[in-house]
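Supplementary Text 2. Reproducibility record for the structural model of the 343-residue chain.

All settings were left at their defaults, and a single model was retained for analysis rather than an ensemble. We include the record here because the model underlies the residue-level annotations in Supplementary Table 4.
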Amino acid sequence: MSKPPESRARPGTPDDARERVTQREFSDASTRQAPGVPVPPPGVPLPPDVDPALASAVLPRPYGWGLLPSRWRVRRHPKWWQEAGFILISYYLYGLVRNSVGGGVAADCGRPGTLSDLQRVACARGLDIWEFQRAIGTGFELAVNKWVAEIEWLATFSNYWYALAHFIVTVGTLIWLYRRHPLQYRGMRTALYATNALALLGYTFYELAPPRFLTQIGFIDTIVRYKTWGSWSSNGVQSISNQFAAMPSMHVGWSVWCAIAIVALSPHAWVRWLGALYPVVTFFVIVATANHFWLDALGGVVALWLGFVIQRLLSGYNAVDPTVESGHRRYRPPGAHRGSPVT
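Retained model, structure tokens:
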């Protein structure tokens, strides 16, 4: 008796436990659970016929302990309308609190008779930081500021970088995470929001004059000298912005946040290099324009680190995890046939 021919599944046709999870089921954005793959209760091992590598990308991960309810601690694709609402509300509250403390009038710390009580306190703190940095041999901001102030094109570039890159790159990174790495988006977004909340504490309880107000030391406000549009010192902007929100520096905090996302997740080496250089250039700019001391930058990095700690405590998982499938729409799951469709 002849042996019946061995049946072969067409490319893309599921024929075992691995391929029961189709591409569409694999990229299911709402549940991360595929029909045909049983979902065991927490602590119960997977059935023997389910490939752990594939199941780990489809089933909810058994994350560790977190403060949020378990159903909120599963990596899911974000919904655009929810995220748009979160961004608008959070930025409105951030700006409201940030700009309600202190004042919208620039100060000249070299003219004490013109200062309000709050401005005197902020100027005294700025002088204390400057003297401390000089005492430990790190008061380099004045030399960098004076050098850049004499080179118009470099000062103008620094002014516009300070005014615009802060928002453009951060928003662009959020959009990139949402579109290309949606399973990473919520964790990174939560870390950023937590960082902003911590920064507001600094702005509320530690008003600090930026170096550009310390005219008696010799700092030059490059933004005023070259009349840069859109900066905190330009007409129409300084009246609605808190001029003493210097500690911590969110220019540095946000730039490091962008760098972490880009370096960890971008598949292109040149993009990762640009991401790594972004906070370096930003640090140079905040010093060159006399908007921050290096201690303000350190405060921004510490605030960001605490933001990631808070995110971890809330969710039980790391905000960014390159081992998690990217969620890219053209991602092909492990074991899928070359001819199987991608979405």
